[in-house]
Design a protein that fits this description.
InterPro entries: Dimeric_a/b-barrel, NIPSNAP. It comes from Amycolatopsis taiwanensis. By secondary structure, the protein is an alpha+beta fold. It is 32% helix and 28% strand. The protein has a single domain (9-108, 121-230), classed as Alpha-Beta Plaits. It has helices at residues 22-33, 35-39, 66-77, 80-90, 142-158, 196-208, 211-216, and strands spanning 9-17, 43-50, 56-63, 93-104, 127-134, 162-168, 186-193, 224-230. The protein is globular, with a radius of gyration of 17 Å. The model has no long low-confidence stretch (mean pLDDT 96).
């Protein structure tokens, strides 16, 4: 995908791993599995440690559209790189099916930060927060409008301005070898922070704001807040 292209489809992937295996998977992923995916037209937006679950690996993958997704997934998972490394990768995993298929609610461009080289070992001190809001029904635009008019100003005031907003992509999963969560209606936003202390200050301000109360009446369940640390090669950081 050209660097100035917008993502049309995004996967939010959450993997449950065997105890103690997260760093093993991250080392393999960052060393062997990033560039080969991008070589077939997919884009590894960011990969993260879940700071609230030591056995959870979270990553975001982008595509130009659903046709590009099918082509890219077919090329990568049917190709020699995955064949060489799938056993080692799969050995770290208990479950890899917690996947939300999303589309941007507003233009979502690749991160401006260049990807660190393969031999990079410096773990960023930044934080990424991904908020997943379960909706009671497919959004007809009301929640997206509420997001723009009420949520964004509240996030700005708390120091967590969103860098992306996404909603469920309801297209059929045309690559069933990789399942996605079916029947979901969600709205997702992503915020980035320079440090753990910046995130902590944001979270404290957010809890003191009236946004949690405003959200409660509009959601099917409590939002999921992913508190993430980028890996050494994550572009989103």
């Amino acid at each position: 995908m050209p660097e100035d292209s917008r993502y049309g489809v995004v996967e939010l992937r959450q993997y449950t791993l065997h105890p103690g295996q997260r760093d093993t998977l991250i080392e393999l992923f960052d060393r062997e599995l990033v560039e080969p995916q991008e070589a077939v037209g997919m884009h590894v937006i960011g990969q993260f440690r879940d700071l609230d679950d030591p056995d959870r690996f979270v990553w975001l993958r982008g595509f130009a559209d659903m046709d590009s997704r099918l082509k890219g997934l077919t090329g990568f998972y049917g190709g020699p790189v995955w064949a060489a490394h799938r056993n080692a990768a799969n050995a770290t995993m208990i479950d890899s099916d917690d996947v939300l298929l999303l589309r941007p609610d507003s233009p979502f461009l690749p991160p401006q930060t260049p990807r660190p080289p393969v031999d990079s070992v410096l773990t960023p001190q930044s934080r990424v927060a991904i908020t997943v809001c379960p909706l009671p029904a497919p959004d007809d635009g009301d929640f997206a409008q509420f997001f723009r008019e009420a949520i964004v100003p509240a996030l700005d005031a708390c120091g967590g301005s969103p860098v992306a907003a996404l909603r469920t992509e309801h297209s059929r999963n045309t690559f069933p070898k990789l399942p996605v969560r079916e029947g979901e209606n969600v709205f997702v936003w992503i915020s980035t922070f320079d440090s753990a202390s910046d995130y902590a200050e944001y979270a404290e301000r957010l809890q003191k704001s009236d946004l949690p109360v405003q959200l409660r009446d509009r959601l099917a369940d409590a939002p999921q807040e992913l508190r993430l640390q980028p890996t050494s090669r994550s572009r989103l950081r």
